[in-house]
Write a structure and sequence with these properties.
about 70 residues, mainly alpha, 5 helices
Length: about 70
């Protein structure tokens, strides 16, 4: 699983819009959309914020942890 698919699955499971999540992260919706579409590398800061928000490990989001 790639990072974008993981991010989308986590977001959909929480019934969140890209816009609401982008506001939480302090970025534009378009920037967040690029993460989900694997068109932009995720920064360490954003990765940590997402891991905290979803109560997941960064390894899980990066696909380094077995489900």
């Amino acid at each position: 699983m790639n990072i974008g698919k993981t991010l989308k699955a986590l977001r959909v499971a929480k019934d969140l819009s890209q816009g609401k999540l982008a506001v939480y992260l302090g970025i534009s919706r378009q920037a967040y959309c690029r993460y989900e579409n694997d068109q932009r590398e995720i920064s360490l800061d954003i990765l940590c914020k997402l891991a905290d928000y979803y109560n997941e490990t960064t390894d899980y989001i990066l696909g380094r942890e077995k489900i």
